[in-house]
Description:
The complex is a heterodimer of chains A (316) and B (291). With 316 residues, chain A is mainly α. Chain A has one domain: MetI-like (MetI-like fold). Helices cover 74% and strands 3% of the residues of chain A. Chain A is built from 13 helices and two strands, in the order H-H-E-E-H-H-H-H-H-H-H-H-H-H-H. Chain A has helices at residues 5-17, 21-53, 69-75, 78-109, 116-128, 131-141, 148-153, 169-196, 201-209, 214-243, 246-252, 263-272, 277-312; strands at residues 56-59, 62-65. Chain A has a two-stranded antiparallel sheet. In chain A, helix 2 (21-53) crosses helix 13, helix 8 (169-196) runs antiparallel to helix 11 and helix 12 (263-272) runs antiparallel to helix 13 (277-312). In chain A, 39% of the residues are buried. By secondary structure, chain B is an all-alpha fold. Chain B has two domains: 4-69, no CATH class; 81-253 and 260-290, MetI-like (MetI-like fold), CATH 1.10.3720.10. Chain B is built from 14 helices and no strands. Chain B has helices at residues 4-14, 17-50, 53-56, 71-79, 82-112, 119-131, 138-147, 157-178, 182-190, 195-206, 208-224, 227-232, 241-250, 256-290. Chain B is flat. Mean pLDDT of chain B is 84; it is low at 1-12. The chains are: A mainly alpha (316), B mainly alpha (291). At the A-B interface, helix 1, helix 2, helix 4, helix 5 and helix 6 of A face helix 1, helix 2, helix 5, helix 6 and helix 7 of B.
Amino acid sequence: MAAPGPRRGRRASRAGQGHTITSGRALPYGLLAPILIFECVFVLYPIVRGFLLAFQNTSFGLTKWVGVANFSQMVHDAFFWGSVRTTLEFTLSMVVIWLGLGLLVALLMNWNFKGRSFFRAALALPWALPDVPTVLTFTVMLDPNFGVLNRVAAWIPGVHHDIKWLTSPTLAFVAIVIMVGWKGFPFFGLIILSSLQGIPDDLYEAARVDGAGPFQRFRAITFPSLIPTLAFLSVLAFIFSFQQFSLIYLSTGGGPGTSTSTLSVLIYNEAFQDFNYNYASAVAVVGLALALVGTLLFVIFERRVARARMSAGSEI
Amino acid sequence: MTEPAPLTAGQRPRRPAPSRLAKRIGRYTLLVVVAVVVLFPVYWMVLSTFQPEKYSLTYPPPFFLHGFNLGALTSLFEQQPIVAWLAHSLLVSVLAVVITVLLAVPGGYLLSRLRWRGSGVFGFLLLFTQIMPGAMIVVPELQFYRLLNWTNNLFALPAVYAAFTVPLGCWILKSAFDNVPGEVVEAAIVDGTSRIGVLLRILVPLSRPALTAVVVVAFFVSWNDYVFASAFITNRGLYTAGLGISTFISEEDIQLYQLQAAAVVFSLVPAALYMIVSRHIVRGLTAGAVK
């Protein structure tokens, strides 16, 4: 199924040559060429193009090189800094919520109970629900007039049921965090759970023999064994939250003000509402730099997890 | 560590069975709470679709179904070109899946079993593509598509999705290929199998769950996209389902319950896919995420 015709042909001819060393060395590059060309055309080339756009300005169909003008505009733009702040607050909130609740769920599930497989499947559901229906559902649940979340919130003493979630800056941010948090924490719980199950049982047995209580066992065994996984997952959570776009954009559009405007949302609004492609590209350069930092962190932490896993002799 | 030890040890024999039972009940209660939190929005989406109008647009909204109303669904299909939109999404997603599989199978092999110069740089490039948010390149990508006259073209749109799913597919397949025992591969090579033969006749058949995961993930990403579809497709007749349905959010004359019907319909395809391969997805996603 995955065998494109030409490749089979090449294999046959190589068999005819009797597996020479040179043809063997060329093979990786033959396989590489299609992917590399594809990714260069659809990813690298646009990145370079976007980079150039950031140093240009277009008015009345005329494109001029303007040096760093877009960047100096950015430095003085309160909207840009507001978005940077929102991005940081949002990614940090997501890392804490996804990992914190994920850890709780994983600990809660780390025993043999009835209905465990059902529970696992249920936990993967929010992650599998596409963004658009998620936003539609939360929009309905958060509706100031008929929203069911207001009915639940009104159970708290002193809270009235007419909370206008998406029109107050603070509440809009909270609403986004609830929605994105709901979508991600069960997934992180599943990953942490599989890592929990890799901790050898004899460690716990030994601790029990030594008389350690459940809390001590968590502090002395569970948590230290999880640290490499948790460190790696916090990088992953940073990356995933940095990638969020449709959930935020479709529910608030970034507003009110910059309260929910992450960098992705800012870029989209600059490009497709204000039609300021050049300024949007300058902001995207900053975003790409952040993505590069994320990639480097990912590589570093992934190596650490691999090393820890190897020394622990367990598999995740 | 040593000090509280005798204390706990002394308590243990005295702890009666009922406390264990209480602990179990406590754990089950917490599990039920988690399950309710996790499933509630999905439940609400389905509930609001079938809730008769007079109940869905009142305060307080009832927690349970009061009757069964198909009005939201039928009016959705009568008033909106939802079937065409769904067909567009299906076409785009399937094409993206095909490109992804064709490129990710050799890509995973390149990262896993082959030794060659530049594999480190290649891996980093793939990782960066995977990590970069789509919104960062949507502007230059749009300009590129305009240059080629590829906007409003449902056959061109999948390419940009595949650009993002190929790297993920490569990583998922790499970890699957890594897990195939080395002896199996060596035995095949001794038998005279070429390295392409190793890939197609040994590694791929032994990595079916991972391949399923790649198909599902690529499908989900494409089915789910909003950024690129909204930029590249401006002709309402060519909208993908996600794009079309998302326009309902800002439309004033659409009723809330019709929104929910649209959400349910849109989720059905991924949900069906999910039911069929749920085990593979969880395993594949975690493999892709952790490796």
